[in-house]
Write a sequence for this structure.
């Protein structure tokens, strides 16, 4: 089966693809961190873990970063863990002979392609990735990601290669820009010392950083056509863009098969839901209920709001973002305020406030410890 190349905007509702790549962890603390990173990725909704199936070398008993992260991802005990893993493998006829491979999740074999081509395809396939204790092959992936403009996060506390990427003479600006890191935060990131920092908290911080490079998605529920489309273009889309969200609605995204199932997947994959109540149909009420059942943050909006007693019973106690006099510019400003408020309230749930972690105790400097190899 051939891998599907970078998908178009019609695949906007698919889960984000994130990877963690590197050689074998050089110490026990690093292996524990990789396991914790796998667990943290599994807890993050809307993410799929992409791996290259690299377990290690035949002549060495040590397992790779990829395997430790996958093991942590699967160790959570949740039944759908394997369903959120994608493994891209080279053609066995063209693979290196001394490499051990594992098969987890949805496995895709790249027919006619060897290890290097598989690495290039993986970089193209993921939306963002991190590296741990990089070897030459992983370093190639970082350089390719930079050339493609792909967000890549070399973790400077995991190896000398990663630390080298963040030195001032190595021009680390591309990494910092992709993850919205200031110079002070970069300095603190470089100051992490495994063994002195909690692996769970450090892993959660790394996942939060990866998520910062993925544009948040907002599913817009509304009755299409007429004046509602004007409200969508003039108020909803600008407000979402201003707050860092990608606006999506079902009629703008191509889908194949069951339309209702596709709609449910779209809501599930979104980070926020905005529902326009003007001219709302039963479909709008159903979709709002489904979003609430999933625990998604929902912002109700209306250009011409009705009195609470005229709304469906379950929505009467909900605050509605509205505009006096039917002014779309006013509604846009109110939506920006509402969305920022919702985002602040839910930041500890789906999209952790990374800067609070970067300012916290997990980044306190400590003397570098010697690294004892795992046996």
């Amino acid at each position: 089966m051939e891998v599907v190349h970078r998908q178009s905007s019609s695949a906007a509702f698919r889960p984000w693809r994130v990877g963690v790549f590197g050689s074998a962890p050089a110490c026990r603390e690093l292996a524990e961190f990789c396991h914790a990173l796998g667990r943290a990725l599994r807890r993050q909704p809307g993410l799929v873990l992409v791996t290259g199936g690299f377990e290690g070398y035949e002549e060495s008993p040590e397992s790779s970063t990829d395997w430790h992260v996958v093991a942590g991802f699967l160790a959570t005990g949740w039944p759908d863990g394997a369903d959120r893993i994608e493994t891209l493998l080279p053609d066995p006829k063209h693979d290196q002979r001394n490499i051990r491979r594992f098969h987890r999740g949805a496995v895709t074999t790249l027919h006619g392609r060897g290890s290097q081509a598989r690495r290039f395809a993986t970089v193209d396939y993921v939306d963002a990735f991190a590296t741990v204790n990089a070897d030459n092959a992983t370093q190639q992936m970082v350089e390719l990601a930079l050339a493609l403009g792909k967000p890549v996060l070399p973790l400077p506390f995991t190896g000398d290669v990663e630390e080298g990427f963040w030195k001032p003479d190595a021009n680390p600006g591309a990494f910092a820009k992709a993850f919205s890191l200031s110079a002070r935060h970069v300095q603190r990131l470089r100051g992490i010392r495994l063994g002195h920092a909690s692996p769970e908290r450090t892993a959660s911080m790394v996942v939060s950083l990866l998520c910062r490079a993925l544009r948040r998605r907002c599913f817009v529920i509304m009755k299409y056509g007429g004046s509602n489309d004007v409200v969508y273009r003039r108020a909803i889309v600008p407000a979402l863009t201003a707050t860092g969200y990608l606006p999506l609605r079902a009629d703008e995204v191509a889908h194949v098969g069951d339309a209702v199932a596709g709609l449910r997947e779209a809501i599930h994959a979104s980070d926020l839901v905005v529902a326009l109540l003007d001219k709302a149909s039963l479909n709008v009420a159903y979709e709002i209920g489904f979003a609430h059942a999933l625990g998604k943050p929902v912002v109700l909006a209306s250009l011409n709001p009705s009195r609470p007693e005229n709304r469906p019973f379950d929505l009467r106690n909900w605050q509605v973002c509205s505009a006096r006099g039917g002014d779309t510019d006013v509604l846009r400003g109110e939506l920006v305020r509402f969305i920022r408020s919702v985002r602040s309230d839910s930041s500890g749930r789906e999209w952790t406030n990374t800067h609070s972690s970067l300012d916290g105790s997990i980044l306190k400097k400590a003397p570098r410890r010697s690294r004892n190899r795992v046996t």
